[in-house]
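Journal club prep, notes for RB
We'll compare a predicted complex against what the paper describes. Inputs for the pyridoxal-5'-phosphate case:
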Amino acid sequence: MRNLFTPFHRSLTRMSSHKLCMIPGPIEFHSTVLDAMSTPATSHVAPTFINVFGETIEMMRRIVLTKDGQPFIVSGSGTLGWDMTAANLIEAGDRVLVINTGYFGDSFGECLETYGAVVQHVRCEVGGRPTVEHVTSVLKQDGPFKAVTITHVDTSTGVLNDIQALAGVIKTTHPDTLVVVDGVCSVASEELRFDEWKVDVVLTASQKALGAPPGLSILVASQHAMNIFQTRQSPISSYYASWKRWLPIMQAYESRKPSYFGTPAVQNIMALHVSLGRILQHSMDDVFKRHREVNARIKAHLTDKLGLRLVPLSLEMASNSLSAVYYPEGVVPSTLLSSMGEQGVVIAGGLHRAIATKYFRIGHMGITVMDDEALGYVAKTLAALDTALDNQLGVREKL
Ligand SMILES: Cc1ncc(COP(=O)(O)O)c(C=O)c1O
């Protein structure tokens, strides 16, 4: 039989030729997470796996700081979290306000419309974020809304929203309105206190600060959200994304009983279990603090040392989990990215449609920030950036 594991595949598995993946997700993962991905075939109802899945569900509560939020861990990418939110909590004609700070606000809005929501966006200039005062006035003038969605960190702009303040005004203006946080680029890196801040839905994915390979959509819903789901009038307009099907599965695994709807991604869940265990060796307060500290060093390097301009309009609204940076004048984007690649570091180009060719992005979340060994990744990335800019511009000498 033809050998399908070609030299190309072999080269991908060789760690020595591996380039650091410093994009804003997927992020680097720890070798123990990689080991969990290569465990032998295991039944999804084997007692060992049931226990792993049950513990993973419980650990997700500790990650987002909730006592009674309902986690859902389902095969898929972060995008499935949008579909789960829209399919289960929104009924045709419901009005939803999207606090939009970039590409991912636009896309979440499109997803909600697919399920019949009437979507209103609060937008602002690229790199900015709507102020709490502006959102308050929209809520008062145009509300009530069934839900308000907020992208905690928009990965296209690196803009961080103030969830505590926004959730506060949303709940003060109308306590029943669902506060939905897209935390794909923030969970386990930016401060998020689900219960204390009265968040109703936080959705995320395995491949960012949670530190596992892509493949899992992870969502936590408050009891308020679960009540709205349980009392909805119209049928759920999705088969795979329906919580009617997934809730009994999550409850079964958590009570350590076998159950089946849609085969779970056994190895991905094992890998997530290992990664969450590593994160939870720290308190979440420490996790947030460490991300803030490392981010402060990175931003100082980019702005003070290299004189580069960030996409976020101020440091206060810049994410701690990634940096979105304009190319300085005279730099050819493809040359900069390939020079980084030649030095063994992969970073990302731009994504926001209005400025896509004008900026690049570096991810700095998860083990890159938390793991002492991996902290060298940030130093290596910044050194590669210095060299790449020097090669094109001699930027540092000019400053
Ligand atoms: C903020 C945000 N929301 C949603 C998504 C979609 O997640 P996925 O690509 O895993 O479907 C992403 C992806 O990067 C994201 O950054």
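Talking point for the session: The mean pLDDT is 94.
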